[in-house]
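Practice problem: predict the structure.
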Amino acid sequence: QVQLAESGGRLVQAGGSLRLSCAASGCTSSTSGRTCSSYLMGWFRQAPGKEREFVAAISGSDDITVYADSVEGRFTISRDNAKNTVYLQMNSLKPEDTAVYLCAGGYWRIPGRASRLYDDWGQGTQVTVSS
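Answer:
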């Protein structure tokens, strides 16, 4: 099974920047025949008292990306296939961005907002934006 490990979350001041990383292991399997190049990866976030919401996603190949309206223009998602790692560059951070950020993945060609597309989930990394 695929394992996802997030890192980079910390306390930052409003207006600052932060870069999150998520490393995937086991996305290429000799038994299933699936490869990391076919592995969709994305980011979700969940704040206390709120439901989990979609943030951004990127396809395993072709660099197809999707963003939530709330982060469009401020966040950028990218991936390094050689390292099987996806990144989330967050700029102009707001207190409303405070949440646990979760990395997610699944074998689906086109990225989407629905959580049902993602079979694998990381443990999350805390991002806190102070006023």
